[in-house]
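Posting this for the archive.
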Amino acid sequence: MALEHILSPLTINGVELRNRVVRTAHGTNIGRGRVDDDLIAYHLARGRGGVGLSLLEAASVHRTDIGTLRIHDDSCIADYRRLMAAIRPTGMRMFQQLGHLGHDGTPMDDGVQPWSASAVRSPNYGWMAHEMTLDEIEEMIACFARAAVWGREGGLEGVEIHAAHGYLLQEFQSPVTNLRTDRYGGSTENRMRFTLDVLRAVRAAVGPDYVVGVRTGADGTDDGVDAEDCADLVRVIEAAGLADYVNVTFGSCRRPHKIIGAMHEATGYELPTSEVVTKATRLPSLVTGRFRTLAEADDVIANGLADLVGMTRAHIADPDIVRKTVAGRAHEVRPCIACNQGCVGGLSLGRLGCAVNADVGVEREHEGAYDAVSEPRTVLVVGGGPSGMEAARVAAVRGHRVVLCEAGPELGGNIASSRRFPHHELIGDSIDWLSAELERLQVEVRCSTRVDARLAAELA
């Protein structure tokens, strides 16, 4: 498979990407607000796997937004430098996304209301936001510019301004959340003003030779920001020379299930709205939409729908997608099943995880966990559900002779049943992959076999 489009390089304002594969910004909370050694290890694994570009999770730039990454003082510069010292040798490029959750944010200071364009209620938490004054708008703009400079000083190669998902910048753009009557409210031009002012300040702060991107996208509602609104915004941004690329997304805090589509969503489900924006600009464009393979991503570029493709959850599930595929081992790529249980659900429990990849977030702790053993033994695994299959796989990777026994007639446990429910077919890909890996690793599988003392003794 040639994959000539997705694997071709692309240069954005002097920064050459080795391929068009992108990991878009996504909350992890691995570093609990900082870029720590665990977060570095998480990104390093993906850099070694061959990704072209990664964006650090949206960093809050102001104390009125706690965020999973917080850039509130210049201590972040040293953190960035440690990150880039680790990442740079892999060839993966790193940008920082900057944002503010607006009325959906959680303030750092007790008793401080979240800031927003107007005094509107958060759709997810129910609290009332504080309408920003003109002085506070200027303060926020300065914070975006300051954070961008800190990223440049820390060695990051670009910055992306988050103006989507119904958060602060898009709250100013939306007629639903912007009820202002001053120069930042009312007309479409006025509602764009805050986003444009942020971009102008960032561009002035980092200079013309530093990559600046913007993320935009329809919010998924009937009365808010639609794809044509985003296209208009991008036309203005391009004409003013404020950004070097555009990252197009879909959904919002008012339609959160559309931001990160679950397994019932079709591959490329965001493209019908994304292409309205990408076709309105000559800037390099990035799209997302539950893409799991390089072949799917290659088709998007071949069809002229975008220049770059986000494969974020796919790389949570398997950081080595690019490396394995290029080596002709695409069948060995662990598939993302779009269940959102570990990545999205994990954040509600404290930090990112993954239902099919136990290494996520603990890459440093698991260093060497798959190394070959010096004295191979016979390992008996009792139970052929997903956990038993994974235990057998890891033991075999390490060089043991493995026997997996399952009392039932097939492997997969409850997953084998769950995949038969409507719109849940994708969940079965996890056990299909495990089954193929067990065969490749020559694990002896015995279905319809109950384990007793006699069998254990027989296997020694």
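DSSP finds 15 helices and 16 strands in the chain. The two ends are 45 Å apart (CA to CA).
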